[in-house]
Design a protein that fits this description.
Layout lengths: L10 H33 L2 H37 L3 H36 L4 H16 L1 H16 L4 H24 L3 H26 L15 H34 L2 H17 L1 H19 L3 H28 L1 H6 L5 H14 L1 H18 L3 H27 L3 H5 L1 H26 L1
Helix pairs in contact: 1-2, 1-6, 1-7, 1-9, 1-10, 1-11, 2-3, 2-4, 2-5, 2-8, 2-9, 3-4, 3-5, 3-8, 4-7, 5-6, 5-7, 6-7, 8-9, 8-15, 9-13, 10-11, 10-14, 11-14, 14-17, 15-17
Length: 445
């Protein structure tokens, strides 16, 4: 798909075409954990489902930490590419890859050193503790590949290429699905097999990306001498990336605390929150993709002196995200049993999960509001607001509410499930007020 002029032409068509690459890439990437859980749920025990559920929540910490650096790389490389400063493009790519490699090694060391303590803090059920340890250990050993292919995708998007990242993610997804069935169904190595499939698929994807780019005369040559950080670029990456990483980490910590409470309720509750997180990901794909598209669309139109076009695009994007999320919400309200059976046939898991799914599914709608509003504000360079807003929602709302419900309603999974939509709803309200105030400024000016 080619780049589009976001400040002219049909606003709805331009916005949707720009969001499509993000949506496809996000769908493919979301299949990783979903397939792991699906295969384990079909061929392994409830303890294995709980292990993959908890282990996935832990490994997503890595994804949260590299999100900010990924965004920073895309922005910087995009700026240098737009100004035709190819020397700085090369320096930014070399800096990005070197920093990501260092981050991967540090995160691997930290995870291997502290995984037992972390899983203990999360109240991982005793029945699934050993299996969870195996899953996290194997996935942690593959951090270099996770960081590697995320870095390459960020670089390509910064260079204006949104299709090749999709291809590389597709390669990883297909290999992961094949290996999951081979390792779990035929080799019968369970949780370890799903983790190994994830790591190997990411390794092949990263290797394929590097091989393809070298064969096609990419601007960066991937020679050892080119992997060196440039100090001023590293500082810019940190300035842009650290606030986003901090925001993502705070949100992840708050959900890990929810996982801790659910783990305390037993292995079936632990399995349910893991299954629920997979549906969270898919139900919110339209919102996350549209949020990314709105950030770029808004920034482009603000720069072109068209703030009203940017604000109208927000309402179009928000309508699209809500419409898709509403389909998943209706499914959860109408037949949550069928949603759970996609990943697990255990009747105890299904019974425990029905009230949780019905209540937590309201978050699909609330998050669509929050994500799109935040994407618009990021495009207006209000990133400090979004960081403070999301961090406050995690630390001042979600964690205290989880603590309160743990003390009074620990055995009521339906009550615990309502926490996420309640927090998102509050955040949506005050963020909407802020957006309307910003819109009034535009009208005055």
């Amino acid at each position: 798909m080619k780049n589009h002029d976001l400040s002219s032409g049909s606003m709805l068509k331009t916005l949707l075409l720009f969001a499509i690459p993000y949506l496809i890439a996000n769908i493919l990437q979301s299949l990783y954990g979903a397939v792991d859980l699906f295969v384990v749920g079909k061929y392994c025990s409830a303890e294995s489902v709980a292990a993959v559920s908890t282990g996935t929540q832990v490994t997503q910490i890595i994804t949260s930490l590299i999100t900010g650096l990924t965004l920073g790389s895309t922005i910087l490389i995009g700026q240098y590419s737009g100004s035709k400063d190819f020397k700085r493009v090369k320096e930014a790519i070399g800096t990005t890859l070197t920093i990501f490699a260092a981050v991967a090694l540090i995160l691997t060391l930290l995870m291997l050193l502290f995984e037992r303590r972390l899983l203990t803090l999360l109240h991982t059920p005793a029945e699934s503790f050993g299996l969870t340890m195996k899953y996290v250990s194997i996935c942690s050993a593959g951090n270099i590949f996770i960081c590697g292919y995320n870095a390459i995708s960020a670089i390509l998007r910064g260079c204006g290429d949104s299709t090749r990242p999709m291809y590389f993610i597709c390669i990883a997804c297909v290999i992961n699905i094949i290996l999951d069935f081979i390792f779990v169904k035929y080799f019968q190595i369970g949780v370890s097999g799903t983790a190994a499939a994830t790591v190997l698929s990411q390794a092949v994807s990263m290797a394929a990306a590097i091989f393809y780019l070298k064969r096609n005369d990419f601007i960066f040559d991937f020679k050892p001498a080119s992997f060196r950080p440039v100090l001023y670029i590293a500082k810019k990456l940190a300035l842009i990336g650290i606030p986003i990483s901090f925001q993502e980490l705070m949100v992840r910590i708050s959900f890990l605390y929810l996982m801790t409470v659910m783990n305390s309720c037993g292995v079936y509750a632990a399995a349910i929150v893991g299954i629920g997180s997979k549906y969270d990901t898919f139900a919110m794909l339209s919102a996350t993709s549209m949020s990314s598209a709105l950030t770029a669309f808004t920034a482009h139109n603000i720069g072109a002196g068209k703030p009203l076009r940017a604000r109208r695009a927000l309402w179009y994007g928000l309508s699209f995200a809500l419409a898709v999320s509403a389909l998943f919400w209706m499914w959860a309200q109408w037949n949550p049993q069928s949603m759970i059976r996609v990943f697990a046939d255990n009747e105890n898991i299904i019974t425990a999960g029905v009230p949780f799914f019905r209540s937590c599914s309201y978050d699909y709608l609330m998050v669509a509001l929050v994500f799109c509003l935040n994407g618009y504000l990021n495009g207006r360079q209000k990133t400090m607001w979004t960081m403070i807003s999301c961090s406050a929602g995690a630390l001042l709302l979600r964690i205290p509410l989880v603590w309160y419900f743990e003390k009074h309603y620990a055995s009521n999974l339906g009550m615990l499930g309502i926490i996420a939509p309640a927090v998102s709803g509050i955040m949506a309200c005050y963020t909407l007020v802020y957006v309307l105030c910003e819109g009034r400024k535009d009208s005055i000016n």
